[in-house]
Request: fold
Amino acid sequence: MSLKRVGILTGGGDCSGLNAVIRAVTRSAIINYEAEVIGIEQGFEGLIFNRNRKLTVAGTKDILALGGTILGTTNKGDPFEYRQFDQDGHVTTQDYSQQTIENFKRLDLDCLFVVGGDGTLQIGYRLFQKGLPVIGIPKTIDNDLVGTDYTFGYQTAVQVACDALDRLQTTGESHHRVMILEVMGRSAGWIALEAGISGGAHVILIPEIPYDLEKVLEKINLRAEGGSPFSVMVVAEGAKEIGKEAITSEAASTRLQGVAQLGGVGNYIAKQLSDRIDLEVRCTVLGHTQRGGTPLAFDRILGTRLGTQAVQAAAEGKFGTMVALKSQEIVLVPLESLAGIVRNIPNDSQLIRTAEAIGVSLGR
Amino acid sequence: MSLKRVGILTGGGDCSGLNAVIRAVTRSAIINYEAEVIGIEQGFEGLIFNRNRKLTVAGTKDILALGGTILGTTNKGDPFEYRQFDQDGHVTTQDYSQQTIENFKRLDLDCLFVVGGDGTLQIGYRLFQKGLPVIGIPKTIDNDLVGTDYTFGYQTAVQVACDALDRLQTTGESHHRVMILEVMGRSAGWIALEAGISGGAHVILIPEIPYDLEKVLEKINLRAEGGSPFSVMVVAEGAKEIGKEAITSEAASTRLQGVAQLGGVGNYIAKQLSDRIDLEVRCTVLGHTQRGGTPLAFDRILGTRLGTQAVQAAAEGKFGTMVALKSQEIVLVPLESLAGIVRNIPNDSQLIRTAEAIGVSLGR
Amino acid sequence: MSLKRVGILTGGGDCSGLNAVIRAVTRSAIINYEAEVIGIEQGFEGLIFNRNRKLTVAGTKDILALGGTILGTTNKGDPFEYRQFDQDGHVTTQDYSQQTIENFKRLDLDCLFVVGGDGTLQIGYRLFQKGLPVIGIPKTIDNDLVGTDYTFGYQTAVQVACDALDRLQTTGESHHRVMILEVMGRSAGWIALEAGISGGAHVILIPEIPYDLEKVLEKINLRAEGGSPFSVMVVAEGAKEIGKEAITSEAASTRLQGVAQLGGVGNYIAKQLSDRIDLEVRCTVLGHTQRGGTPLAFDRILGTRLGTQAVQAAAEGKFGTMVALKSQEIVLVPLESLAGIVRNIPNDSQLIRTAEAIGVSLGR
Amino acid sequence: MSLKRVGILTGGGDCSGLNAVIRAVTRSAIINYEAEVIGIEQGFEGLIFNRNRKLTVAGTKDILALGGTILGTTNKGDPFEYRQFDQDGHVTTQDYSQQTIENFKRLDLDCLFVVGGDGTLQIGYRLFQKGLPVIGIPKTIDNDLVGTDYTFGYQTAVQVACDALDRLQTTGESHHRVMILEVMGRSAGWIALEAGISGGAHVILIPEIPYDLEKVLEKINLRAEGGSPFSVMVVAEGAKEIGKEAITSEAASTRLQGVAQLGGVGNYIAKQLSDRIDLEVRCTVLGHTQRGGTPLAFDRILGTRLGTQAVQAAAEGKFGTMVALKSQEIVLVPLESLAGIVRNIPNDSQLIRTAEAIGVSLGR
Reply:
């Protein structure tokens, strides 16, 4: 039940609440165990290339309300398959896992806290299998991780989208327009679905339910005929038409991933609708405003609880696990149980049925 | 599996999300069952005195983001013990339950949705025992109801308090002051505890843990000595000193309940501290800004889910139950299982230990 | 000094604060003059086609915090040149001015309050020249109207964009990315410039200063070399490269105006940068979230002041004028002095020099 | 037109936007003049006791959105009459002005930027008269400084109060209560008046217009009779009844100023009303949440503009002046023209008449 020295890294896309985790790990490791805390920079890259710094109570005192991660993060730092672009833009991969493990050993850490989503946690699990004392802390803005009720950052993203919908409602109604909001969600539609329900959207399109354009038009026209010549739609970036590929998929596989939003699905559907209805159509692409910025209280608390319990789990030697929210308690689940499973929204889930029960069209 | 006509009332203190429930009940009863929906005004008073109106999809279309309850509510409308003040300000009570039941029968309702806290739900249960087809929908800003993971309105209240703490942090630090924030919570300290954790409070005082003034002073002084000559405190309105009564208790028992905040616990502690430390002390009393106003997405979704599932439960004839959030699903629990139990924060609960693990003083 | 019956219409794009104006006109006309107030629907279309309704104190009581306009609005209702699309999508125009004037006379109004931007106010002025008692109330989200210090709705739009920048800062820094925010502003860059200054942007591109891509790259690279491998940019939708047309101009002239954002300037620049730098680039298009939604206090007060003073001007018979904010007072300016002039940002204005003085690049 | 070394201090109560000023002064002095910038800590105390530190572009990069002042501030640091409390709590004053001037000279500064309200600016003026190259930057949350249209921090305070009113409206209406919001404003009622207008208050009580309780009751009762049995009131902390002293005055003169809110005017009026009406009354005391926290875009821009222009004025040797907002430009006004004048709201000003024109009662 003692900790001398622990490390923490954040990997994958950032989201609100990461700094709450870093602060909680730092404070509870120092206050309760007098441990030293090492912050590893830019995800696993910091282990591969030996970039890190000491974290202190004083140095983490003002970060609770701060978005992003003070440690930095990256999507491309897998030590087992480190991706690099050569001069022609081609990807090459290299295995740095041995170097990673050696660097870890040199740091002499009792535990490595790996904060990240599916990909990051799987890397953590592989390192655990190779003998590293890893504890996972789940993070995904998309809320699509199995094993935990909620991930931090998700509520904040839903709120940002809900606020945008509140704004689009009044302008849509004033102008008799169809307002489209494109939100995050490549493979799971949680943000779109919950933002849509909370923002009073009339149509919600998610990756799990390929949409039928005729059904969408039907809903918009029905509303117009009923005296509401405007509609508000939420579209997950991974939404796709029945029988077609998602719009983003091609772009995402190239180096131009950076501008995957160019001609994204929101604008694509805006064009589709414009060709078929008399109402004007407008599209808003929230993009990374959903990731950054000050977290809601909910995400700060969840991050703080996960960080604190992770430190306790480390002190108890429970490696190879992930801290997770179950109902109202933080519990431990084995990292191996995650196994790269994405938690999609089942088509007949209670939440889907709720949306349809209050009259929302899911394009089916 | 059919519904012809249903009624809904909101009782007790208002909170954010009530209108989301009313809208969801109205929409899902009409859209899925072609039922008529009757809104009963000002809680049970509307049944006692026969005040109600028809609710429609059009009439509830803009209320999702609206605070309060379009049906009105009251704290004093118990049909079994209806309280009235005579001219001298004395309270008299009268039993209107028979009249209530007769009015209900005249409305010819298949179900009565009772949205409220502990008190309101108990009245609902008594009416169910007398034969009324009641379904409860839990509501309490204090989050202290048993049987459900969260109540709607609570997250919004925590967020309002967290936002206030964010503001108090910078001014406290700039001026070297102790900033006190008094929040809601007469018997349970959930708002204070979660707002405090999320807002980076240094001291959190809750009703469940009577505070030792010396411990509070110790924390403030320790911080000042460590180079942080300022502190931020959250105080639940029901916080009390070891061996003493809560400050609000006397006032609350008189007709002047309306101004119970006069000389409330926040200002009382401000005075206590001012007498003992050199730092200036300032107090903010958030009061009903925690109740009113637009709900967070979380509370809108929770309210919508509860309302929709309540209608389905009604269609399935599952009366005498309450809809409740368990992990990620809405489930049914028997009204009788609530039995007036307040869900306080156990002194050794995980959340309490989390606060202390990151260095927060709970005044003990 | 008496008013019997007045009318009000809102024209052009909506913005936050329109309902504050409508409420103030309604309340002050009724409370101070016992006048009747007629709300004309969907801008001048409501006069052309005789669509209107009575406005009351009770009917406008909850609209102060509401976005949009309860009267509706449209961009295409010029009575002198009413635009319609035939079946092939071609535009035809028709002169409805005589019909408009006749409808106005039938309404027997002492004054017509015309709330709108440059185009709407010019129509108002032409109707005034034809004998109608018109008073203008300035509105443009772009803040580019001459004659008034500020227009309502503008501060709210700047705030929405500033909030987005706050969110983009942390995610950009965490990931080492260039974050682009595209905001409103076809011909004037006020929103981009003020949002950029307040949100700490490193590059701000406005229509008034065509950008030199090399200068933008220089700034981004300089920052990266100085240890800040990320940048945040604000781009007005009318921003254009030196020697090139604005990206939106072509789309805007076709019927597909509705999806003018498709491949807008933000994404165009994202692509340009991606081809030249190693950092990833991401783009957010705020779109109509800048128009809709609850107004800031500033815009509610400005709208209320303008509406109240407009009614007083009407009672004093000062037609052909526009109410305007000058320093701290609402004053009257002649409608004819506006003459279709757009208030662009002078290239050497104090505000421009302020931005450059703190190190912001304007791409020149 | 050169600057080698400049100093900046912030004095008096803090408000949102101070850090925007500090950042703008730092950046524009360094970027444009390669000057060194010295931050003086805790107002004039930092000059008296020689506490200061160097400010850099890197060190001020994340403070634009941060409330408070990174330099600290104090209300009691007048070098000419430095107040100290002896052990019995008695105040003694001492003249440290000579020491202040000597410390200033030792710092070898070309200019001292004094950011503060009336009191702080007057001290600055006295130091200027004694030969120091002082430039003032106006700051007061109360907006009651002569010479400038607006002060930064004020809009943020109004917005915080307006947001609170939005929340109080719905809960007041749901419960049939009178909701009182006590806001800042000891001698001037700008915050109360503008927050009240923007938040739809029915009664606004300001220091400039002593209130007649009967008039307040009349308004509340009239509303109740008209079918609106609830009212929302804003009360400036310096509001007073006709013929009586302000409630806060006594407390403010003692050492217990720290808890002046105890039994403040909001709760006093709540008690007065409770004794005379049947509606319940509730009171919220916003306190220092109006001062702290992230500034609105408006205040960040104003702070940035003032800071930048102050540096330019320094480079031009225009000492003994204050930068000020006039309409849309930052101009210079002589410090001597301020002369301790508080800008109260004239009883017949346009803003007052606006409030009454839309039916707000000012208690007269």
User: Anything to note?
Assistant: Residues 5-152+295-326 of chain C form a domain with the Rossmann fold fold (CATH 3.40.50.450). Residues 249-262 of chain C have pLDDT under 50 and may be disordered. Chain C is about 35% helix and 20% strand. Chain C touches chain D through 46 residues (CB under 8 Å).
